[in-house]
Amino acid sequence: MTATFPTPTLLDAGRVDDLPEGEALRITPQGTAPIAIFNVEGEYFAIDDTCTHQDASLSEGWVEDCAVECPLHTACFDLRTGAALGAPAKIPVRTHAVHVEDGVIRVAVSP
């Protein structure tokens, strides 16, 4: 038996010029949870926007190195892996692949 996986959808999230280094933006694709996209030293990362500890927008958090700190209770998440880096969060956030083409940030979202 061969496993089949749904094909991700590439969503345009905006232009690289609209996302300065160290900043984040939030997109809300139809039919899925909000996604936060971060610019860390010219590299782009996308994770689910909602903190797994409590409902807070990670796009409103503080970015340092390659981690974001939740603005509500200081839970931190690795932007590369989605791993929860310390209390109070214990559950990781989902990550999404990011592609930049012709200055457009595209996020691969699986159903």
Protein traits:
mainly beta; 3-stranded antiparallel β-sheet; globular
Structure description:
- There is one protein chain.
- This protein has 111 residues and is an all-beta fold.
- The chain has a single domain, classed as Rieske Iron-sulfur Protein.
- Helix content is 0%, strand content 40%.
- The chain contains no helices and 10 strands.
- The protein has strands spanning 9-15, 24-27, 35-40, 43-48, 62-64, 67-69, 76-78, 95-96, 98-101, 104-109.
- It has a 4-stranded antiparallel sheet, with no helix packed on it. A 3-stranded antiparallel sheet has the order 1-10-9, with no helix packed on it.
- It starts with 8 loop residues before the first strand and ends with a strand.
Radius of gyration from CA coordinates: 14 Å
Terminal CA distance reads: 22 Å
Q: Given the helix and strand composition, which structural class is it?
A: mainly beta
Q: Tell me the major beta sheet.
A: 4 strands, antiparallel
Number of strands: 10
What would the principal axes of the Cα set say about the shape? Answer: globular
Low-confidence stretches: none
CATH architecture: 3-layer Sandwich
Please name the fourth-level CATH homologous superfamily: Rieske [2Fe-2S] iron-sulphur domain
Determine the CATH topology: Rieske Iron-sulfur Protein
Q: Biggest sheet: strands side by side, in what order?
A: 2-3-4-8
Proportion in β-strands: 35-45%
CATH class categorisation: Mainly Beta
How many structural units, i.e. domains?
A: 1
Output the number of helix runs: 0
Residue-averaged pLDDT, rounded? 93
Give the SSE order as H and E letters: EEEEEEEEEE
